[in-house]
Amino acid sequence: MTSDFKDHFSDAAKDYADNRPRYPKPFLEYIVSLAVKRELAWDCATGNGQAALDLADYFNRMIATDASEQQISNATRHEKIEYRIAKAESSGLDNSSVDLITVATAVHWFDFEKFYEEARRVGKRECVLVVFGYDLYSISSEIDAIIRTFYEKTVGPFWPVERRFIEDRYTTIPFPFKEIGVLNFVRRDEWNLEQLLSHLGTWSSVIKYKEVKKEDPLILLRQSLIPIWKAGSRTVVRPLFSRAGWIHGYPEMNKKGNPKAADQET
Predict the structure, then answer these.
(1) Axis-axis angle for helices 218-229, 141-149 (nearest 10)
(2) pTM of the model as a whole
């Protein structure tokens, strides 16, 4: 991949802010537990801050960057978060300044080699990088089959090639770090049909389909789902996948078995 910013979401930044779900609190707490210190975290490709907003509660400061000015303009403000417009591969952060780096459903767009070089530059000796994203929904067998057909056939030709990394749950991305075992998490929401369709409308493939075909693929999908969905809300289950690693190799351990910070007493 090149280092050029692949902008699939700026035109739908407001919809993205309104309809993209945040991440499960137990998962974010687990990420935070990996940080040796909690002085500064960097949420890279923050979008409108879905992950940064919750992570900020645990750190003294947080810098959240995104290459899209529209995404940053739609981000929810927080007293601990400094939003910046910057590419993942050129963050503008200080050398050796960051305790934790997170990338929520975005690392597949990056120039991996250049981003990892940037992560090593800004990360402290014990800095941890965590990349994560969501799998496709699970609602019911009938609904899942319809959405899978929509995903693969209706809008399938309009997915960017990088989507394959999501489908592989990030198992096929380069990740040249000493990995940390991660736990399995899921998010459960109660959505009505319109909430589901609103979220589907933020898919990059749906946005591209509309741009190319000048029609909305969600109209026919809604008609297919109405008889099955009926009234009310349904439980929407989304498995979360992730990879985590020490960006400078496995850190020296202190006597308690925890990573030893440069100025930490043993």
Answers:
(1) 170
(2) 0.85
